Amino acid sequence: MNLLELLNGIIITIGLPALTITSIYMGRKLQTLDDIVDKTKGIDKKISGLANANNSIGQAVIEIQNFIRERGQVDLMSKVIPYDEYGVSNSPMVLKEEYRRFITKTSLAKQIEEKNDKLVVWLKQKKPETGIDAQQYIEELVTSGSIEQILDLKKYKEYLYQTGRTQQDVIGILTVYLFEKIIPQVIK
């Protein structure tokens, strides 16, 4: 026996079992890959279902935000603003002296005087039966932001901001001042 025959015999003896083991190993790996492919086929449907649910939730959040912005703001703001902080009872409520500067220094008093007839007509059209009804209508006008269709509040808001005041103050001071100026002309 020569050396080549000996090497050939060793390679064949070791090679066949190695080939068999490698084939079995590769077969198992391919089976594992097939199992993974089978399991992931259903995941696509589940992921698209989750994406649809996520989109639906996003749309619901937007609708809730719009609802609060459009309808809920008046109710939320009216529960937060302590009008007695800005005014004193006098049927109607009258703006406290310490807050008058915010109205006078910004020319808002002059604007309200100029738009007085328009504001009175607006309130009369609401047909308030009581002073409380009139207060509610004025409060809604201010908290909803609709007042800015009648009055230019830019200087007023800027002045309050520069003096460290908040949006609550913007609403509270203006609302009480409008109570004082408009209600006596409508509710006698």
TrEMBL record:
Keywords: Membrane, Transmembrane, Transmembrane helix. The chain crosses the membrane at residues 6-26. It comes from Candidatus Roizmanbacteria bacterium CG10_big_fil_rev_8_21_14_0_10_45_7. This is Uncharacterized protein.
